[in-house]
Design goal:
By secondary structure, the chain is α/β, with parallel strands linked by helices. The chain contains 13 helices and 18 strands.
Length: 406
């Protein structure tokens, strides 16, 4: 057992699932070689709470250090764009006429999804702590730059009234103050309102070996069991569960207040998780061994290509990719550059490895022999684009769940 404080229930003991050592922050990109933004290292280890079974990282980095200036923006792929429209339309079909129009999105980022909710007929408001919220507000997508919690909920309630729909996509797992966030949700949510949560499902992380999703910004990793226990503490219940293809497999759950007559929808998945020991430390015993094996195989491949003097680059400078590169020990001798469509990252240096980030055009002008798909969850879209737009005839490396050359 390790000592810590659970973000969900305040218990003080947990079981170690994976220890990744000291790594730089995944978004600590540097502006030049003299920049020391990536010198800070923090321990990164995954644990399971002994009491409520919430899976989480043990050691926190202050959220102000992680989120005040943010490089990630939502709509950088066709898959994300298509999904945003589908997600917004489903909310309209399920809830607009029954529950009302006022929708608040927590962690609304640059407003990419907010605009789709507005197109679907909702009155919108976003809340996000990073500087990209200011960009959204300037583009006519009403946004508050702040961390959502009870204080912000009270402010929104006094100015706009209760929220009919609250959307929290990929934010519960990011929240250092998880209990404060949920207190804010139940305070702001109307009596017949609905909370819609999307988050990476721990089952996929374990079974597909998605260890790159474990980094300091992702504080918690939910199962249906831990999510159900957490929501019950705040008078909420799950009434619908679906799945999203994004991020290697995400869970989408809808919550209403427990007094509503709508039946629960989590029983079958709770039974499934019990059967596969997803909420028991022993159910994760093979995970750490598989992560170590992936690192060994990945580095063996990159070292062999380096010995053969093959030109290898990467594509997709996501935080997930940075986690994998740091943990595996990838350097500029393995990848000469990484391409990314996000202009905020182009021209920067990757944290730790100092690999330069280029635009896709600049990257492909290097005429690589191999392209390592860092944003592997969009591998089909990326590989198709490389072939069609750049007539790329070389090979691609998909690093996870097992390194593969295609």
């Amino acid at each position: 057992m390790v000592d810590f404080a659970c973000r969900a229930c305040n218990a003080d003991q947990a079981s170690m699932l994976l220890d990744m050592g000291l790594v730089p922050l995944a978004n600590a990109f540097c502006t030049n070689e003299a920049d020391k933004a990536d010198e800070f290292r923090a321990p990164l280890s995954l644990v399971m709470c002994k009491h409520c079974r919430l899976i989480q990282i043990r050691d926190l980095v202050p959220r102000e250090q992680l989120f005040r200036s943010y490089l990630w923006v939502t709509g950088t792929s066709r898959a994300a764009s298509d999904y945003a429209i589908k997600f917004a339309n489903r909310l309209r079909e399920r809830h607009l006429s029954e529950r009302g129009k006022f929708l608040v999105e927590i962690a609304s980022n640059d407003g990419f999804f907010l605009s789709r909710y507005r197109d679907a007929g909702f009155d919108i408001l976003g809340v996000d702590p990073s500087d990209v919220a200011l960009d959204a507000d300037e583009r006519g997508l009403p946004s508050i730059r702040d961390f959502f919690g009870r204080r912000v909920a009270e402010s929104v309630l006094s100015k706009y009234g209760p929220a009919d729909i609250i959307v929290a996509r990929n934010v519960l797992g990011h929240s250092e103050e998880l209990q404060d966030l949920l207190e804010g949700v139940v305070h702001l949510l109307s009596s017949r309102g609905c909370l819609v949560v999307e988050l990476p499902y721990a089952f996929f992380i374990r079974n597909e070996l998605l260890y790159d999703y474990i980094f300091h910004e992702h504080v918690s990793y939910m199962t249906v069991y831990s999510l159900s226990r957490l929501s019950e503490r705040y008078g909420l219940k799950i009434i619908d569960i679906t799945f999203s293809p994004l991020n290697g497999g995400s869970l989408v759950a809808e919550f209403v207040r427990t007094e509503e007559s709508t039946p629960r929808a989590d029983q079958s998945l709770l039974a499934f998780e019990d059967h596969i020991s997803l909420n028991q430390p022993e159910g994760w015993a093979a995970f750490g061994q598989a992560v170590q094996a992936q690192r060994r195989d990945f580095m063996d491949l990159l070292n062999e290509l380096s010995r053969q003097e093959q030109k290898v680059v990467g594509y997709g400078a996501s935080a997930r990719c940075m986690t994998m590169l740091s943990y595996c020990g990838v350097t500029k001798s393995h990848l000469s550059a990484i391409g990314d469509t996000n202009p905020k990252k182009q021209g920067l240096l990757c944290p730790g490895s100092r690999i330069p980030v280029l635009s896709p055009d600049e990257l492909m002008a290097l005429q690589p022999d191999y392209v390592m798909i860092g944003a592997w969850n969009f591998k089909d879209e990326i590989m198709q684009m490389l072939r069609r737009k750049y007539s790329y005839s070389g090979k691609c490396i998909v690093p996870l769940p097992k390194p593969m050359v295609v």
